[in-house]
Recover the amino acids of this structure.
């Protein structure tokens, strides 16, 4: 039985989805990936972002919240209006992370803030994975973020 469980874990990790995007070259693909994840979220979206001001993402998150997805955003800076259903929390301690977790099962992280400049002008890296061990660590990390 133990060897069966270990085999299943190995197989699951072999088929885990992992993608990496290098911006600005793959900006269109990266943006499309994020929008798809937002549009397909079923239960919750947790975001911790230093600088959030991408209106298209804000609108998509608002639509997700309106369809019943719990959207939580911790931010240090934001220059965009968010739907009232989004739980947006400004942190006082500098929050330099750039992560988004979708349905507690898929995580997006890297160097880019969700701003137009990050997608169009900057050299950035974005990594997307559903590897269980990585996602679990990000879910635990997200729980540690406090409004200080």
């Amino acid at each position: 039985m133990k060897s069966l469980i270990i085999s299943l874990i190995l197989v699951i990790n072999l088929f885990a989805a992992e993608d990496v995007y290098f911006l600005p070259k793959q900006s269109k693909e990266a943006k499309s990936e994020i929008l798809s994840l937002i549009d397909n979220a079923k239960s919750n979206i947790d975001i911790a972002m230093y600088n959030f001001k991408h209106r298209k993402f804000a609108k998509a998150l608002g639509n997700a919240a309106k369809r019943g997805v719990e959207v939580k955003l911790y931010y240090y800076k934001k220059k965009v209006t968010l739907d009232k259903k989004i739980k947006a929390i400004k942190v006082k301690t500098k929050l330099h992370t750039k992560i988004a977790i979708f349905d507690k099962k898929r995580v997006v992280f890297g160097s880019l803030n969700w701003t137009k400049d990050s997608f169009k002008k900057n050299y950035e890296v974005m990594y997307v994975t559903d590897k269980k061990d990585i996602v679990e660590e990000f879910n635990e990390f997200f729980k540690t973020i406090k409004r200080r």
User: Anything to note?
Assistant: The mean pLDDT is 89. The chain has one domain: 17-144. The CA atoms of residues 26 and 54 lie 17 Å apart. The two ends are 47 Å apart (CA to CA).
